[in-house]
Specification:
Length: 305
């Protein structure tokens, strides 16, 4: 039997509706929620991300500003800018788009953002609260994944969850969130022995690796919830064609456009085994920005309690 597809776009839209309502309630009290998104340099992907974040904020009634600096900006200048934003009482959320140019230490920048304005949830103070299981501004992508799992109506408590990937922005906070919801959690990474056997034990399998179609159908427990965080762009080549040989739709896109976006899961085959599965695109992607908006309104509410 084929898995049910989890519709990230629809779930993100319902979160955005609730954000809009909370923004309106703040505005009734004379409070204008605001986020500033900072970009340094002209990385084309960052340009799109920053523009989309600021645009989505404005769409939901949040003041969304973009601050753009040249690639040669010094670390001192960026830290001074972050300090200025920290001190600006009209701003609730600060997001510095990563990656930053090599002369700037991203860790130092993240640590300079005021924790109560850290809408990415990357500041060590917020990371600490998350791992203590306490309420905090939590990273948006794993936060979105929890919402996607909840949308299936399945309980998380007591389930075996396996997270593949241990990055600070996805894998580790993902594991902390699933643990906080009383799942029994295992984290896999590049040194994990017999990863397929570990993955096959998962009732909930989250793939956040960055390797196209890494998770094959044989790594999935029948009926599992499979969440694909990966976003990998394939260019036309014989290897890409071979990889996509079970997915007629993606293969056709690759041939017509010369490029196609795929996840870390072999969706076409995995859907025959899983109970629930997210597509790429249209699964985790739309949730990340919706959760950023949720964190921004949350930060504004907390600052004006
Ligand atoms: P990352 O920092 O590169 O981390 C990748 C993780 O995968 C690492 O922990 C690495 O293990 C592990 N890994 C790599 N190759 C492996 C292998 N062969 N076997 C087992 N584990 C392996 O990546 P990330 O920032 O977490 O992102 C992961 C993916 O999610 C990327 O495709 C990214 O584009 C996507 N993403 C999507 C969104 C969204 O909004 N949809 C947001 C963020 C990220 P080691 O630690 O041992 O090296």
């Amino acid at each position: 039997m084929s898995a049910c597809t989890i519709d990230g776009k629809a779930i993100a839209a319902s979160i955005e509706t609730s954000v809009r309502r909370r923004v309106d309630a703040l505005k009734c009290r004379g409070i204008q929620p605001a986020i500033t998104v900072v970009r340094v340099g002209d990385d084309p992907a960052s340009e799109i991300y920053v523009r989309n974040k600021a645009r989505k904020a404005r769409e939901l009634g949040i003041a969304g500003d973009e601050l753009i600096f040249p690639a040669g900006l010094t670390e001192e200048a960026l830290l001074a800018e972050v300090a200025r934003l920290n001190g600006d009482a009209t701003i609730d959320g600060i997001l510095v788009q990563l990656p930053l140019p090599p002369q700037i230490n991203a860790t130092r920048v993240i640590e300079t953002i005021a924790p109560d304005k850290d809408v990415d949830g990357f500041h060590p103070f917020n990371v600490g609260l998350l791992h203590l299981g306490r309420a905090t501004l939590a990273p948006c992508t794993p936060g979105g994944v929890v919402r996607l799992i909840d949308s299936t109506g399945e309980t998380i408590e007591g389930k075996r969850a396996v997270v593949i990937g241990r990055s600070d922005i996805v894998g580790k906070p993902m594991a902390a969130m699933l643990l906080a919801r009383n799942a029994t959690v295992t984290i896999c990474h590049s040194r994990t022995r017999d990863l397929p056997a570990v993955a096959r034990e998962a009732d909930i399998l989250v793939a956040a690796i960055g390797r196209p179609l890494f998770v094959s159908a044989s790594m999935i427990k029948p009926g599992a919830i499979v969440i694909d965080v990966g976003m990998n762009r394939l260019e036309r080549s014989s290897e890409s064609e071979a990889l996509l040989n079970a997915d007629g739709g993606k293969l056709a896109q690759l041939r017509s456009r010369g490029t196609v976006l795929v996840g870390d899961v072999d969706f076409a085959r995995a859907r025959e085994i899983a109970g629930w599965i997210t597509p790429v695109p249209g699964g985790v992607g739309p949730m990340t920005i919706a959760m950023l908006m949720l964190n921004t309104v949350e930060a504004a509410e907390r600052r004006h309690q």
